[in-house]
Design a protein that fits this description.
- The chain is an all-alpha fold and 111 residues long.
- It has one domain.
- The chain contains three helices and no strands.
- The chain has helices spanning 15-19, 41-69, 75-110.
- Helix 2 runs antiparallel to helix 3 (75-110).
- The protein is elongated and about 60 Å long.
């Protein structure tokens, strides 16, 4: 039994829709026939999403400093950047928690 790589997760895509495994396993082996066998490309994509999260947080921090010093012309820019950063962080934490839960469940099945 092999575990397919996760690919295509980005900030604007639902983790369930991105993985495509909502319908469950197919075939006699229990492995989705459309699963990617590209090795580490899915992991690299997930790291790209984390880089995107870091960029959103740094933009939010820069705008907050500008707002405090009075250099920011429109406070709505900061509000939007902070909301995007918060939402991306919550999505990343939710995906991480689900991955840890899945790993724990697999370990329980092997015992």
């Amino acid at each position: 039994m092999s575990i397919p790589a996760i690919s295509g997760i980005s900030a604007g895509v639902s983790p369930v829709a991105a993985t495509g495994y909502l319908s469950g396993p197919t075939g006699a082996t229990g492995v989705d026939a459309g699963a990617s066998t590209d090795g580490g490309a899915g992991f690299a994509s997930a790291l790209g999403s984390i880089d995107n999260l870091q960029q959103l947080q740094s933009t939010s921090n820069e705008l907050s400093v500008k707002a405090v010093t009075g250099d920011l012309d429109d406070v709505h820019d900061y509000t939007i950047a902070a909301a995007e950063s918060k939402l991306a962080l919550e999505l990343t934490a939710a995906v991480r928690n689900k991955a840890v839960e899945a790993f724990s469940e697999i370990m329980r099945m092997q015992a």
